[in-house]
Amino acid sequence: MSGQARTTLHASSKAAVLDVIRAAGTISRVGLINATGFTGATISTVVRRLIDEGLVLETGRAESTGGKRRVLLQLNHASRYAIGVHLDHAGITYVLTNLGGAVVARITRQGAGTEEPARVVTRMAAEVRALVDRVGVEPDRVLGVGLVTPGPLRASGMALTPPSMRKWEDYPLDRALAEETGLPVLLDNDATAAALGEHWSGGVGGTSTSAALYMGTGIGAGLVIGGITYRGTSGNAGEVGHTCVDALGPECWCGARGCVEALAGPAAVVAAARADQALARMVGLTGTKRARPSVAADFAAVSRAARRGEPQALAILERSARYIAVAARNLANTMDLDVLVLTGPSFAVAGSVYLPIVRDELDRGFFARAAHQVDVRLSRSAATAPAIGGAAMVLQSELVPLHEGMRLPENLSAAEPAFLTQPSA
Amino acid sequence: MSGQARTTLHASSKAAVLDVIRAAGTISRVGLINATGFTGATISTVVRRLIDEGLVLETGRAESTGGKRRVLLQLNHASRYAIGVHLDHAGITYVLTNLGGAVVARITRQGAGTEEPARVVTRMAAEVRALVDRVGVEPDRVLGVGLVTPGPLRASGMALTPPSMRKWEDYPLDRALAEETGLPVLLDNDATAAALGEHWSGGVGGTSTSAALYMGTGIGAGLVIGGITYRGTSGNAGEVGHTCVDALGPECWCGARGCVEALAGPAAVVAAARADQALARMVGLTGTKRARPSVAADFAAVSRAARRGEPQALAILERSARYIAVAARNLANTMDLDVLVLTGPSFAVAGSVYLPIVRDELDRGFFARAAHQVDVRLSRSAATAPAIGGAAMVLQSELVPLHEGMRLPENLSAAEPAFLTQPSA
C-alpha cells in the first residue's frame, strides 16, 4: 500500500479511535477493538501514538470480568484547547473548550453593531486573549480559533452580508483575526457550526441524516450526514432561510422573492410587532424606548410576551412558525431527514412556540412519512451551539489532521472546515 | 489490519480501479497507479483478480514513450450485463447494458395503466426475458434488474403512490419481479436512478455536488455528492416535487399544501390546457379525442404546440417553468449545488422551454452566487436516464460488492441501492 494510502488509513483509524474514546468517556483497548473493528495490533499502535502525543491517558483499570483487569483509556482533556467565536450583529459569544469539547469558559460581549470591522477584530483578539488568560491555559495548548459568522462565505470572509452587517462584505475577517491572535482561524457559517455543536453535544448525528435548523438574526440549516458535516460546493449548503415558501412573496435582501427569512424571520416578526403600536409599547421594543434598535432584543421581547400569553404577540410568532414549519418540511423532503433540531439564539427564546408547529407540519406533511417519521427536537444549548461548533471545528481538524485526504467526497470531509487561514509566520 | 478492514480496503480499491478503467476506456497499470495513488503492488494484485474474474481484459500495448511499451487494460464489456426497468403509468422502458454501462438494447412497452399489478409484473418478466433473448446474452451473465418507480419507496414496494398508480401501494413489486425473473432486483425511485444514469452517461457527478431535476409524470430530484448517490434515511431523498413554493397554495395528493408538483407538474399543465377548450381541441388532448386520458401524452402535445409557438401553450409551460425554477433555486440553496441537470421524459419534450427560465432564476437568485454559479444543463438522454440508472445500480452493486461496508456514511454508500431483493432459492 502506498505511503499516501497508509497515512490516509492511519489518519482515519486515529480519528476513529479518538472519536470512540471521546464518545465513550473511558474505554479499554479491547473495547476499542470491538467498537472499531480494528485488530489488536492496529489498536495498540494507534493508542501508543495517541499516548505519545499526549492526547490520551491511561486511567486505572476496569472492574475484573474474570480475566485480567483492563487498563482504561480516556482523552487527556487538558492536553489541547480550542476557541469558538460566534460573531453576530447583536453579540459576540466566545467559548473555550477542552479536547473533549467541554466548555471550560464562555463570555458574551457587545456585537459587531455598526463598528468598523477592523476595530471589532482588534477587540475580538483582545477578548480571546482575556478568555485564555482568565482560565490560565498555556497559549501553546490552544489549537486555534473557530470563527462563526452569518453566511454566505467565500475565501476570505463574508459575501452578500445581511443588511445589518453590510460593512463586513469582502472584509477578510478570518485573515485579520489570524494576524491579530497569531492563531490559525477556521471560518464557517453559523448554521453549519451550530449543527456541529449539536453533534458534539449529542443533539444530532451518529449514523442519522440530521439537520440543525438555526435561527439567530437570520435563518439557516446545518446538515450532518452520518456524523459528517455536509458543506456543499462552496461551504454554503443549508441556506434554507433563502428558500422560497411563497413564489409571489415579498422581495428579500438577498435579491430573491418569497424567502422564508423575509416572510417569517426575526426581523419580520419584529416589524409585525412594531406595526401594532399597543403591542410595541407593551413589550417595550427598542427604538420606541432605547436608542439603537436591535432585532435580537426585540424578538426576545416579543417572545417573552408570547410566552406570557399575550395573544397578539403569540399570533405573530405562530404565523412565523407556520412558514418556518413549511421550510422545515421542504428541507426534510429534500434530505430525507430523520432528525431535525431547532437551535440558535432565537429558538433559545421562542422554541416552545415553534416546536409544536414544526412537529405538526412534519407529522402531517413529510412526504416519506409512510417509511419513517422525522424526530423534531429543541436544542438544549440553542444559544451557544454556534460557538461550541466553532471550537469543535478546530478540534476535528486536530483529531483528523488537515489535508490527510480521507477517501470521502471532498465536500463531506470532516477534516476540512469551510475555510482555513494560517497566521503569517 | 483486521480481516474486515482488509476486505473493506480491497472492496474500495477494486471498485476504484474498475471505475477508473471504465471511465478511461483503456489504461495501463502505470496509468492506474497515477490515477488511484495506489502502489504498483496493490494495482497488480487488484488487476490480476479482475482479470481472473473476467471483468478486465488486456488489450494490446500503448505507443512507446521511450521505455517498454505498456499493456493496456479495459473492461471486458461483454462479461456482465444489467437490466434497467423504468415502470411508470404511461410506459415501461427496458434497457440492457453491458458492464461498461453502454445500452446494447432498449424497448418501451405499454405502461402500468389501470392493469392489476400482478399481471403487469408477469408481463414485465416476459418482456425482460424477451429483451435478453433478442440480444442473445447468456442468462447467467445477467447480474440483475434495477427496477425504477415513482417514490416514495419502502421495503418492499411503493408507498404513498401517485393517484394514477394507487393499486401499487403496498404491492411487493420488487419481490414479485425477483420471483418471476429469478434475478436479484434492486428497487429505487425514478429521480435517484435518473441522477445515477446521468452520472454514468457523464452528465453529472465527479467531485461536484450535482442534482438531476427529474420530471416524468411527477417531479423529483436525484442527488449525487462527489460521484456518490445520496439517498437519505429511507432512500427517499430529493422529493422536491413535494416541496412547497406557495404556503397558501392548493392541496397536493400527498396531503401537503402548495407542492410544486401540484402547482406546476405535468398534470397541472394538462389541466390548464384542458381548461382552454380551443387549445385542448387544437393540440388534441386525450379524452377529448381518444378514450383513456394520459398525462404524459397530453403534456407532450402541449409541449409540441408550445415549441410551434402557440402562445397559449407557451404561456402555460412558462408559468410551470417559473414555479419549477423556484424549486430548483430552493434545492440549489439547500445543497449548494454546482451542477443541475434537467432530465426525465417531460424535460425530454419540453426542456427547451424550461432550461432558460431555470437558468435565469439561478443566475439571479442563487444565494451563494458571490462564491460560484450553478451550471444548469439539459440532459442528452432525458427519456431513458431512469432506466439506464436502474441498470447502473446493478453494475455498481457488482463493481462494489454489496455489504462490504466501505467506510462511508451508510446512506451515502455507493454499494447500497435503496432496496435489494433476492429471488428465493
From TrEMBL, chains A, B:
<dbReference type="InterPro" id="IPR043129">
    <property type="entry name" value="ATPase_NBD"/>
</dbReference>
<dbReference type="InterPro" id="IPR049874">
    <property type="entry name" value="ROK_cs"/>
</dbReference>
<dbReference type="GO" id="GO:0016301">
    <property type="term" value="F:kinase activity"/>
</dbReference>
<dbReference type="InterPro" id="IPR036390">
    <property type="entry name" value="WH_DNA-bd_sf"/>
</dbReference>
<dbReference type="Pfam" id="PF00480">
    <property type="entry name" value="ROK"/>
</dbReference>
<keyword id="KW-0808">Transferase</keyword>
<dbReference type="InterPro" id="IPR036388">
    <property type="entry name" value="WH-like_DNA-bd_sf"/>
</dbReference>
<protein>
    <submittedName>
        <fullName>Putative NBD/HSP70 family sugar kinase</fullName>
    </submittedName>
</protein>
<dbReference type="InterPro" id="IPR000600">
    <property type="entry name" value="ROK"/>
</dbReference>
<comment type="similarity">
    <text>Belongs to the ROK (NagC/XylR) family.</text>
</comment>
<keyword id="KW-0418">Kinase</keyword>
